[in-house]
Amino acid sequence: MERKKKKALTPVPTAQRLRQARRALPLGQIIFGRPLGLSQNKMSALEKRDDMTKVIALAIEHIYGIQADWLLTGTEPRYTAEGPRMSGGTEDGAFDEALSKHPDVMEVLQELLGLTVTKDPPKTRGRKRKQ
Question: How far apart are CA 92 and CA 113, in angstroms?
Fold first, then answer.
């Protein structure tokens, strides 16, 4: 009797794991990306290509409780010990509070995402108004 060969399991791409995790919450791309500082276009790109960075994966872990290692490699467990969170977003201020405690993380995120943030308000041109 001849044994049937087992098909090798096809590894699930990073993009597909991200999509599965987002849909399991269930959140749309805009709502999921907002506390991460990611646009819907960037979320869509992350769910189509396997180019997620470790920094983005760690931000997702911090905000949503989805393990960065699982997102990047598929290594279980899928969730942190606290389990999945619907949102750690800016609505309740948790993300802003975490970033205020770790400003270096915000700088790294901005640099990696190609964002430029000015700390000083823009200078106005022309004369100052007399009061």
Answer: 23
2 three-class SS: coil
Q: Which of 101, 105, 25 is nearest to 66 (CA)?
A: 25
What residue spans define the domains of the chain?
14-113
pTM above 0.70, yes or no: no
Residues 6+ positions from 86 with CB-CB distance below 8 Å: 25, 27, 64
- Which amino acid would we find at residue 100? S
- CB of 15 within 8 A of CB of 71? no
CA distance 82 to 39: 27
Locate 28 and state its tokens. Answer: 């749309």
pLDDT in tens, 54-106: 999 999 999 999 999 999 999 999 998 888 877 544 445 555 666 666 667 76
What is the Cα–Cα distance from 124 to 16, expressed in whole angstroms? Answer: 47
Question: How far, in Å, CA of 81 to CA of 48, rounded?
Answer: 28
